[in-house]
Write a structure and sequence with these properties.
This protein is an alpha/beta fold. It contains nine helices and six strands, in the order E-H-H-H-H-H-E-H-E-H-E-H-E-E-H. Helices cover 42% and strands 11% of the residues. Helix 6 links the parallel strand 2 and strand 3.
Length: 230
């Protein structure tokens, strides 16, 4: 399959920020697994299964809402041993996730540069809004975009194009910032600019298309995106 033409590096007019692990720290859910009698290590498997199942459902022709997919993944990950009350206790933690320390500096940089920033997720928009409000970050953002509106998980190109349309920006002048290589790859393939923060993965895999900007932390990624030629 021929790769689409790559957008040349340039300063973005709008920035879309992935949410889970890019803005908000999932490790805060670990104590909730312990609360319901499960090992902390199940958090990673639960989230990986949530992404896997959401992407598989999307490929098969449309995904149910994130919360439904996450609930199913949690039940499967824990061997179907949790009561409904326990399941709800774990999932409720998604609305209370704290931010990573490099997030507010990145958002302040975007605000000072007068570049509109949006949270961009396939998670529940209401849950994300609650978490961002709790973290006192939502005032930096123009809005929260959730691909639930079109029954999809990232990373199909249609999701990124939908987001660009929602914010009124052409793909070539819109940047996606994420800590997930597959998310960055999807954005690049869709004709967007992309910034990758390596703090979670340690680097970019060779199997994915390279982002336009790479740095360890989110704030430096944003600075480097804004330093690109207009």
């Amino acid at each position: 399959m021929t790769a689409p033409e790559r957008t040349r590096a340039r300063r973005p007019k709008v920035v879309l920020l992935d949410v889970f692990e890019t803005l908000l720290r999932l490790s805060a859910l670990r104590p909730r697994f312990v609360d319901v009698g499960r090992p902390e290590r199940e958090l990673e498997l639960f989230f990986a299964r949530t992404l896997r199942d959401g992407m598989a459902l999307t490929l098969a022709g449309g995904s149910p809402p994130f919360t439904e997919v996450a609930r199913s993944a949690l039940i499967g990950t824990t061997g179907r041993r949790l009561s409904e009350e326990a399941v709800q206790h774990v999932l409720a933690g998604l609305s209370e996730l704290p931010p990573h320390p490099d997030v507010e500096p990145a958002l302040i940089t975007l605000a000072r540069a007068r570049v509109p920033a949006y949270a961009f997720t396939h998670g529940s928009a209401d849950v994300v809004r609650q978490a961002l409000d709790r973290a006192q970050l939502r005032s930096y953002l123009r809005g929260v975009l959730s691909a639930e509106e079109i029954g999809s998980f990232k990373p199909p190109a249609t999701v990124y194009h939908w987001a660009c349309k929602r914010v009124g920006s052409e793909a070539a002048r819109t940047a996606l910032v994420s800590v997930h290589p597959w998310d960055v790859h999807g954005a690049v393939r869709a004709g967007l600019l992309a910034g990758f923060a390596t703090r979670q993965e340690g680097g970019m895999s060779d199997v994915f298309d390279a982002p336009h900007v790479v740095a360890e932390t989110l704030d430096v990624v944003v600075e480097r995106l804004l330093a690109q030629p207009a």
